[in-house]
Amino acid sequence: PQTIYLKDYQPFGFEIDKVHLTFRLNPEKTRVISRIVFRPNPEAEERDFFLHGEELDLIWAKIDGAEVTPILEDGGLRCAVPERAFTWEAEVEINPEANTALEGLYMSNGMYCTQCEAEGFRKITYYPDRPDVMAPFEVRIEGDEKVKLSNGNPGASGDGFAEWHDPWPKPAYLFALVAGDLVNHPDRFETMSGRDVELNIWVRPGDEGKCAFGMEALKASMRWDEDVYGREYDLDIFNIVAVDDFNMGAMENKGLNIFNSSCVLASPETSTDGNFERVEAIIAHEYFHNWTGNRITCRDWFQLCLKEGLTVFRDAQFTSDMRSEPVKRISDVIALRARQFCEDNGPLAHPVRPESFVEINNFYTATVYEKGAEVIGMLKTLVGDEAYAKALDLYFERHDGDAATIEDWLRVFEDTTGRDLSQFKRWYEQAGTPRVKVRDTYKDGTFTLHLEQSTPPTPGQDVKDARVIPIAIGLLAPNGNEVVPTQVLEMTQANQSFVFEGLASRPVPSILRGFSAPVILERESDNAERAFLLAHDTDPFNKWEAGRALARDGLLAMIRNGAGPDDAYLDAIEAVARDDNLDPAFRALALGLPSQEDLAQSLYEAGDTPDPQAIWDALETLKQAQAQKMQDLATRLYAQYQVDEPYAPNAEQSGARALANAALGMISRVDGGALAQKQYDNADNMTQQLAALSCLLKAGKGAAAVTAFYDQWKHDRLVIDKWFSLQILQADPDDAAEVTQILTNHPDFTMKNPNRFRATLGALTMNTAGFHHVSGVGYGVLADWLIKLDPINPQTTARMCTAFETWKRYDETRQEMAARALDRILAQPELSRDTTEMVTRIRG
Ligand code: B3K
Ligand code: ZN
C-alpha cells in the first residue's frame, strides 16, 4: 500500500463551480447521476484530471454532453478534458446493501445512510475526494422512502422525490444523504440575528421518546456558540439523524449530522448519567464543527487536528460551562492519560499533525483529537483569554470558506499577539509526551524551581527539541495558606530555573495546576506533602492529583514489594470523602483509583515489567481495605446523597448519584451485595440500575439480576449493549475471555453492528488483566474475532487492534503470545489496508 506524505501536497488542477447529484435509490442497485462543472485551477501546476472512485460501476460518462471513455484505474479514473470550464456527467451503480464497511452509502435497518469522512465519497461517485476541493451541492433523491434528507436547505419535493440545496461550498467528506421511514422530534431556534431555524432529530419509530434531551443540548450548543464565539448558524434547517450501525460516534455533515444512536438517544430509564453527558458533549461537538470544520475546513488530512483539536477544545469549554469545570478537567485528564499517553508512549506514537499515513481513518486518534485540544488549551494559556478571543475572531474572518492549515491557524495568533510561535509549533510536529523533571531549593526566603524537559524517542523521531511548556504554579505556606496564587511559568529551555523571592518559609509548590500542559511531571515527593496538597491546594485539579499520586505510590509499593495498603492514602482520602463542603462529583472522582493501564505504564516507565494480575490483585486489596475502613462513612454518604427529586441528568444530581454509588461499591464489598440488590430492585433509572448490577456482579451475586435485566431490556439494543459489556468488564481476569466467548454465542451478538461488537470484544480489551491473561487466551480471542471482522468492517477492526499497542511492556511469555496473535492477523490473505497498517505499526 502507498504512503501519503504531507510534504507532497499539490492543489487539485481544477476548481468546481457546482455539483448536482441525482440518487435513484435501490437497496442493491442505487444509481447516482452526477453533473459537475469544473474549471482549471489557476493556482495549480498540474492539470491531471483524476477522479477518485471505488467500488463503483460506471455506466456512462460525458463531457459537455458528449460521451467519453475514461481510463479506469485502481482507485479512480482519468480522462482527457478541455483546457477551459466544462461539465462532467456520469452515472454509476452502487450496492448499499452489500456495504458492511459502513463507509459511503449503506443500509442500516432498512434505512439509507452515508458516511463520507474521510474518503468515503469516492464510494458514491467519481469525484476529487479531497477536502480542499469545495463546492455548492444540489441533490435530488428519488425513492419511496417517507423521509429523504441531504445537506443544506430543502428544495422542491413531491411524490417519490426530494431536492436539497446547500449554498455553502463544502468538501465531499461533508456530503450526507439519509432516506427511510423515520419519525422526527421537531423544534425551532431563533438565531442571534433573529433568523428562524427548523430543528429535527430523526429516529426509527419507537425511539421518539429518547430525543428530548438531545434537542435541548442542540439548542444550548447553538446559543453557546453565539454567546462565546459569536458564531451563528447559517441554514434554515438543522437535521440530526440517529443510526444504529455506525463506525464512530457521530458525523458533522453540513446541516445533516448523522449520529450513532448511542450518542444521541437518551432517556432516564435507558441511559446513565454518563451517557447523558456524552450525548450533550457530542451533539455540541458536531454542531460546533459547523464553523470549525465546515465553514473553515482542512486543506488536506494532515491538518485534521485543525478541526478536531479545536472542536474538542470547544466542546470541553461548553461542558465546563454547562456543568462543573474542575470535574470536566479531571475527567478529561483521566481519559487523556489512559488513551493518549498510552499512544504517545508506544508504537503508534505520531505527531498531532502527522507527516505520513497509509490509511487516514487510522489517524482519528487520541493524539489528533485530545492532544490536539490540549495544544489549543496551552496556546490560550500562553496568550491569555482576551488574545485568544481576538485570534479566533481573526481566524473566522480571514479563513471563512477556506481549506486551511496549521500554519494559517498559528499565523492568526502571531498576527494578533506579535508572538513568534515557531517553537510552539513543535507541539504539532513532535510526537511523544514530554517529561518535566522538577527539583526545588530554598534559601533565605528564596525558593527556586529547577525544571528539566525531555521527550523520549518515538517511531521515526529520535531527537526532540525543547518545547514551550506553560506550567501553571502556585505556592502554599506550611500552614496551608496560598502565598503565591496561580501564575504561568513559560518554560522554553531544556533546563530552566524559576525564582520566587520574599517567602517567610519553605513553601509547598503546587505545580502544573489545571494540568496546564500534557506532560509527565517527575518530582520526588513524599506522602506528607501529597496529603498536604490534597487537604489544602486551592486548585481543584491538583488537589485531585495529589490524592491520585498518593494512591499510585501506595499501589506501586503493594505491587512491587507486597506492601499492605497505605494508611496515609486511606486517611487522606477518607478526609476528602467526608468533607461535605466539597462537590460530591469531585469526591466521587477522588475516591477513584488509577487504572490498571496507568499502573502498568508507571511500572514500565520505571524500568519494571508490569504483571497485570499483580496489578489487579493490588487494586482489589486496596479497594477491599478502603471499603472496610470507610464502612461508616460509606453508609452515611449513601443515605445522604440519595436523590429524592425526579430524575434529571444535570451535574448536581449526577454528582450525588456518583458519590452514592461509589459508597455503594464500598458497601457491597462488605455486605455481600444486599444493599445493591435493594437498589437494583427499586431503581427507576439506568444510572442506579446499572451501578447496582455492577456491584452485584462484582460480589458474585449477579446471576439473577443479569437474567432479569435481559428480560426487561431485550427490546432495547442500546441497553443490551450495556448488558454485554458489563458482564465482561466485571468478570474476574481468569474468566473474562471465557465470558466473552460465551456472549459471542448469544443470539443477540452480531459482528455487523459496531456497537455490539465493541460492547463485547471491546469490553474484553478493557478488562486489562483479563485481556493480558498469562494464558494468552485474551489475545487469542480478540485476534480470532478481528480476523473475522476485517473483511466485513475494516475500520472498526483496525481501531480495535490498538488493544495490542502496549504489548511490548509485558514479560516475554506475554510478548510472545501477543506477537503470535498479531502475526496471525497479519498473515490473513486480503487483510484490509486499514488493519495491515495498524498491525504492522504495532508489531514494530
Ligand atoms: N469527524 C468525524 C469523525 C470521522 C471519522 C472518520 N473515520 C466525527 C467528529 O470528530 O466529529
Ligand atoms: Zn470532530
UniProtKB/TrEMBL annotation:
The cross-references to Pfam families, in alphabetical order and at most eight, read: DUF3458, DUF3458_C, Peptidase_M1, Peptidase_M1_N
Q: Which GO terms describe its molecular function?
A: alanyl aminopeptidase activity
Q: Where is the Peptidase M1 alanyl aminopeptidase C-terminal domain?
A: 528-842
Which SUPFAM superfamilies does the UniProt record give? Leukotriene A4 hydrolase N-terminal domain, Metalloproteases ('zincins'), catalytic domain
Q: Which UniProt keywords apply?
A: Aminopeptidase, Hydrolase, Metal-binding, Metalloprotease, Protease, Zinc
Aminopeptidase N-like N-terminal domain location, by residue?
87-174
- UniProt keyword Protease, yes or no: yes
The Peptidase M1 membrane alanine aminopeptidase domain extends over 213-427
Q: What class of enzyme is it?
A: hydrolase
Q: Peptidase M1 alanyl aminopeptidase Ig-like fold domain: from which residue to which, for each copy?
A: 432-523
What stretch or stretches form a coiled coil here?
none
Q: Which PANTHER family match?
A: PUROMYCIN-SENSITIVE AMINOPEPTIDASE
In Swiss-Prot or TrEMBL terms, this protein is called Aminopeptidase N
